[in-house]
Amino acid sequence: MANPAADDVPKPGEWPVDPQDDIPVSKDRIWIDGCFDFSHHGHAGAMLQARRLGKELVVGVHSDQDILDNKGPTVMTLEERVSAVDACRWSTSSVPHAPYVTSLPWISHYGCHYVVHGDDITSDSSGEDCYRFVKAANRFLVVKRTPGISTTDLVGRMLLCTKNHFIKSLTRTLSGNDGPGNQEERSNAAKEMAQRFRDYASDETGLQPGPLVLSYTETGCAPEASIVSPDVGPYATVVDGVLPKPGQRIVYVDGGFDLFSSGHIEFLRQVVKAEEALARKTGWYDDNPARKERLAESNNDYGPAYIVAGIHDDEVINHWKGVNYPIMNIFERGLCVLQCRYINSVIFSAPFTPSKPYLTNLPFGTPHAVYHGPTTFMPLTYDPYVAAKDMGIYQEIGNHEFQNVNAGEIVQRILRSRQMYEDRQKKKGEKAAGEEAVKRREHMEKEAAALEKERAVNR
Questions:
Q1: Under a CB-based contact definition with an 8 Å cutoff, are residues 259 and 233 in contact?
Q2: How many C-beta atoms surround the C-beta of residue 286 within 10 A?
Q3: Side-by-side strand order, sheet with 140-143
Q4: CA 234, 240, 245, 248 torsion: positive or negative?
């Protein structure tokens, strides 16, 4: 992959990604750029707003070195950050090694007229506005920054071991009956959360309905109850969305999806690939009457699988992982999964163990397959997928290049380079973690690791 200097205009053959020749500039083709460190929902929110302003969205991703020189160290590598950008439903294409100071020749080369950025100020290492050139050319548009989430916020949670971001009950929070503040504040927060869900549950244009969003209520609220309870609780629709289409296989996956990263994304992408490979064997893509019927009904063909992602509650994840996991609460994790192009539906508060009654009573019918990946994040004392295996629908995704990238690995990266992230926090005006707080985090991580080892022995 080429790595042209930020101040240079690459020649044909030297651009980081195709096209190598300039393409016509269009106001329907929007450029947005950034670090995109952690694929949190704030980044997705910016891309959603930008996508709604045009028909294509080109996403520039800065290099690790440029970010280090201008802002501080990244947590995720360039490859991991590009993977996250490419997985966003509203991203049309990505451009790695995009210059930190947005360059008119670069955006024009990729055919973009306008550049979009949030309403916060972004400066380079000299303190100058990163968007000064596009602003001077009247090719700059502003969107609202997503409140309440940033990479800096997440790093702070890791270093300070806070738990005040946890959500006890998403259902009660969405109804305004749970959460901080008085009744009016809770009601306003609930309305904002519901609107965010509606926004993120949109299609690739950002304007039409996309994923179906459901919540599941299970008998018993303790983590242990969610493990053994055979009861099937009711489903509630959070956001109406697109239902499975004729011929699609129903595929179920589940997880915590904490700090939604390249590890989760690659797993989901591999699930889609596995289903596509199976569909080729069964003639899904052949020029046959079934395909002609699909094209006649929807104008565009659709994929062979309808991917349903179950997301576990904060309490359940913390029961198994300890410390202050999950670093993202269920609302934040849900938005991250919702924006991913590899899923079609989300079920909040999904049980940790998908039992046979649960699987056979999914609103879409019994799934054709339940997939699990090569994860080592959750320390288990039993196999949660016994029911799926007994039903003959269990499938595994094998090893892949990002399989070790999970919330635990990301936290360890932060701890290993703590001083650099501390300096970055201070530059942002955020509270820095003291030495004692970091030692406490490290001690808690060691205790959690010891518990994992003990559970593995007793399994």
A1: no
A2: 11
A3: 93-96, 56-61, 26-34, 112-118, 140-143
A4: negative
Alpha carbons 209 and 186: distance in angstroms, whole number: 27
What average pLDDT does this structure show over 132-142? 96
> What angle (nearest 5°) sits at the alpha carbon of residue 427, between those of residues 425 and 432?
35
Phi first, then psi: give them for residue 256, nearest 5 degrees: -85, -35
Return left, alpha or beta for 46; rule: phi > 0 is left, psi -120 to 50 is alpha, else beta.
Answer: alpha
pLDDT of residue 310: 98
Question: Looking at residue 390, what is its pLDDT?
Answer: 97
CA atoms within 13 A on the CB side of 449: 9
DSSP 75: S
> How far is residue 8's CA from residue 229's CA, in Å, rounded to a whole number?
62
- Residue with the two structure tokens 């596995």: 274
Residue 23 — pLDDT band, cuts 50, 70, 90?
Answer: very high
State yes or no: pLDDT of 451 exceeds 80. no
- Residue 403 backbone dihedrals phi, psi, to 5 degrees: -65, -25
| β-pair type (235-239, 212-216) | antiparallel
Query: How much helix, strand and coil, in percent to the nearest 5, is found in the chain?
Result: 40, 15, 45
Best CA proximity match to 346, nearest among 139, 205, 203, 197? 197
| Beta strands at 26-34 and 56-61: parallel, antiparallel or unpaired | parallel
Question: Is the Cα torsion angle 51, 89, 150, 83 positive or negative in sign?
Answer: negative
Task: Note whether 16 and 3 are within 8 A (CB).
Answer: yes
Contact by Cβ (8 Å): 379, 321:
yes
